[in-house]
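ok trying this again, last paste got cut off
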Amino acid sequence: MLKIALCALAAAPLAFLVRKKGVRFESVALVLAVLLAAFQAVGHSYEHYGTFRAMFEVPSEIAFAVAAFAAYVPFLYLGLALAFAWADAAAVRAAERMRSSDLARFMPFWAAAGVLLLAWLPYLIVFAPGSFTYDGIFQMDMWHGFAAPSDHHPWVMTALMGGVFDIGRALGSDNLGVALWVGMQALVQALALAGSVSCMRRMGAPTAVLAAALAFFAVVPAWGAYAQAFLKDTLFASLFCLYVMLLAELWVRSRRAAAFDARSLVALTAAGVALCLARHNGAYVVALTMPFVIASMPSRVRVKAACACLIPLAAFVIVSRFVYPALDVLPSGKQETLGALFQQTARYVKEAPDDVTPEERAAIEAVLAYDALPELYYGSRSDTVKGTYTGNDEALGDYFAAWASMGMRHPGVYVDAFLNGCYGYLYADESWTHNTWDYRLYNYGSVPGIQDDFQVSYLFGEDVRGAMIAFCNGWQNVPVLGLTGHCGLYTWLLLAAAGYAVRTARWKSLFALVPSLVLLLICFVSPVNGYLRYMLPIMAALPLQMWFVVAASALRRGRWYAPPAKARRAEPSARAQRAS
């Protein structure tokens, strides 16, 4: 309630600023404010009671919901209205900078990458050689034959990680193998994030915005924590950031014939292939973004842009349908995509066991361990329920019919199960803390049921690592700054960026947000609620995406992204003209 009170008090000075600056009524800001306030009320209800019904049945929760709407809606509306007004002014200045090629003074690309690596160095040293995580160990188990090879984790990524790991093994040290992968992925992450900051500069971002983006990547614990973790997600987040950056630059360059060349398409195609093969979600991102990319491009570029999207998808299909079977790599289990449905079934069996027909029970038993579902059900994690999957295609058909009929009788149970598994991606509150597991600051040891021979251990003692872990976990509770460790903040910012694009009628610029929106939807049906690891790619691309919608607005005010290279050499910059 303290945060609600502070928001209510802050509304008065914000209202004064809005009036002083003459900010007009913002309908988009109002819609967003109501939506975000609803996220807070619903999230609080699920955090404390696990159901939306608490907002209508529990007196304290009813009071909280009313207070949340009363305080958050005005506060968020006024804040968003001021932010939109600032973005409008920033777009005007960006247009001037882009026309004159008088870009902001900021450190060069390599210096920015160096700053990031230096900021993450404490994590890389304290947790050296790197945290050998559960997922990473399981991938190495498959790579070295301790477990059957599977595409549960993309086999291309497993092979890449295994190849690097084996270099260290060949030199006599599993620790070295982990360190080589961690060092490589930390370097790639630094280059990708520094590249996004440089891209923002080319799009006319001012020095303050560039410094804020670089500080976000340097200071927020998630980046250093995941840089030192031996797992696939860090590299995928870097590739995702690169893909979004190339999409944005292609869109801007396509509006200038002099600046557009085939290299942009080749780079985008290569990044798309890497994205699809690095993680299964990458294929969904490329496929669902493709229609928006094609629609947003000028007509002369659309066929080429379509090819840049289709080639990665074709590569994904060829590798998964033909190459993996030839290598005896098992496909990923169907239960991996059905976790949200299985959670709804498990919650139904737990809350309404007497309202399950014999036919429905038989259909469920053919797929899941029916009797164990009430005990296995945990609202924020689906692994234990989907881990009992034993079905086949025929059994799944009967299960889907049972799932639909049960949902018709008790839709509220299904709503509760769904929201209980995803509210953390909408809810922004420092009290909803994460832990060591979320940051991957641990060595797991052997995967249960698998005997391996890996010898990986930290170089520093538990007391040293404990201090860093305490810092990471404590960051979550720092007022305002702690929100950077929570998924909900990034959903809010992503929706605000989309709202600004709608407000400025730059509909075509929305395509650059689609990759993150696709991943956000995937997060909603992911196995873990509010998991920062799943949000990491969105976090990586978001600063660039937020500035891109401002730059797209600037393109409406200024004709071009920047003068062609020859023109920049021939004409002195505005700064040089002022100096003379």
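PB: full thing came through this time. The radius of gyration is 25 Å.
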